[in-house]
Specification:
Order of helices and strands: HHEHHHHE
Largest sheet: 2 strands, antiparallel
Strand content: under 5%
Shape: rod-shaped
Number of strands: 2
Strand order of the largest sheet: 1-2
Oligomer: single chain
Number of helices: 6
Distance between the termini: 69 Å
């Protein structure tokens, strides 16, 4: 009887443990503490319809990686850009393609700028919470707790600052792309009645190569 009672108790304990584990799976702890939960709107504008996988815009706007570099692009990407441009049959359409790139870059810049603002708000919240907690540590004067909490907050400071640095690198990258795109657009606007279609295609092709080369490490 005692053995049977013990078996039931163990079964109940296992069942209880499973239940707790299942609840824990549904409420996995976030990367940041509750007081740093992001309040910014996550419903960003959807990507423009022209950002298809192998479109010229997607090929030159994409950024696959945190310092900005100017490096050559793959032969595959070059071939895709050349193929897309060769299909465009008028100077006006070439300008529109460049305008699409410009619009996509502006959206990227807006997105990363908003991320930097949001992360700086988080950093400000963290500093306030750190000050509040530190007053408590001083009041209770528990040395071990002071050291643990200080280390915890320092890690959070490093985490958020690193994320800000990454966003700033992306922002710098897309701003450089946009600057080159703007120069090229103004150039095409000035010479659209002077250049032949082949000359315009060649200029746009080289411009797209240059824009695509600008990316983060």
């Amino acid at each position: 009887l005692s053995h049977h009672h013990h078996h039931r108790a163990v079964s109940a304990q296992i069942s209880s443990t499973k239940s707790v584990a299942q609840r824990s799976d549904k409420n996995i702890a976030p990367q940041l503490p509750a007081f740093l939960e992001q309040s910014e709107d996550r419903n960003h504008d959807p990507p423009p319809s022209f950002l298809k996988q192998h479109s010229i815009t997607n090929l030159v706007v994409k950024n696959e990686a945190t310092d900005v570099k100017h490096d050559d692009i793959s032969e595959t990407d070059k071939a895709l850009i050349m193929k897309q441009i060769s299909k465009i049959s008028s100077e006006k359409e070439l300008q529109i393609e460049l305008l699409n790139v410009k619009s996509a870059l502006q959206k990227k810049i807006k997105f990363h700028s908003s991320r930097i603002l949001a992360l700086n708000k988080q950093l400000s919240k963290l500093k306030s919470e750190h000050e509040r907690q530190r007053n408590l540590w001083d009041t209770y004067y528990i040395v071990v707790l002071q050291k643990l909490c200080q280390a915890y907050f320092q890690k959070l400071f490093i985490l958020i600052q690193t994320r800000i640095d990454i966003e700033q690198a992306y922002l710098q990258c897309f701003e450089l792309k946009l600057k080159k795109c703007g120069v090229a657009y103004d150039k095409l606007d000035a010479v659209q009645t002077e250049w032949a279609l082949l000359d315009t295609q060649h200029y746009l092709q080289n411009t797209m190569f240059e824009i695509a080369k600008i990316r983060t490490l």
